[in-house]
Write the structure tokens for this entry.
Amino acid sequence: MQMKKINPANQDLDLLASKYLIERDREFFNRVWSTPAQVYEDRLRALGMTGLESVLDAGSGFGQWSVALSKLNQRVNAIELDPTRVQVLSEMVQIIDLDNISVEQGSMEELPYRDESFDAVFSYSVIYFTDYRVSLREVHRVLRPKGKIYLNCNSIGWYVYNLVEGHNSSISFDSSKMAKQALEDSLAFYNYGESPKGNQIAIPSKFLVSELEKLGFENIQVGADGLITLDNDIAIESFYPADYFGLEGVYEVFATKNG
Ligand SMILES: C[S@@+](CC[C@H](N)C(=O)[O-])C[C@H]1O[C@@H](n2cnc3c(N)ncnc32)[C@H](O)[C@@H]1O
């Protein structure tokens, strides 16, 4: 497979990736960093995730959202479970000379922050690796009253799409195998209460919404990936299909903590 070029063309980022990453991780790094920064920043602007004092990026991965958040807000904490990704993002923050991002290793299910520390929690494509009930309790705890939550999540249609059509498969990644595993793990989670333990599970949006309501979140909005916007003048790029054969695919949720 032809590797995408990192944009902006930054040899230091290329070197950083080659120092730590191989195969699937390297492909993922190149993919997220080859998307223009403007695309991420516009999506955050459309959500009104700007001008805030403190924002948490939960499950920051290789940090493209953390960097975008740091340009639009005063301070960002990026937390990520995978130590290699934490290392890569920590070095990247130094390379691109951003002094308002702190990168920490830890889990969304057990956030190492004090109660009411953040004005917003942003989490893209992470919560379905966790027991969402536990993660949402933690997010609620660390948010200030009236704080914002943004989640991007996968429902069943996304896994059926991967099973049938495939998505970003390569020598080191078989998307239909991933989807089959996710569907099996979803059954184990919903039928037998088995923890996802870092595997993916499909989470229908109505489950997330119901949990957010139980916690007392308000103004809950659900939309297809990239389609929730507070500003219709900003053109948004959606990254994933909203549904597949009538099954809910990738969606996003936006809400505010009760104040
Ligand atoms: C699909 S990636 C998304 C990364 C990033 N948010 C993005 O949009 O590119 C999922 C990330 O969640 C991380 N992750 C998985 N379980 C986690 C947990 N319990 N707490 C924090 N991060 C977690 C993975 O290591 C991975 O980097």
Summary: The CA atoms of residues 18 and 221 lie 40 Å apart. The chain is about 40% helix and 20% strand. The longest strand covers residues 143-154. The two ends are 50 Å apart (CA to CA).
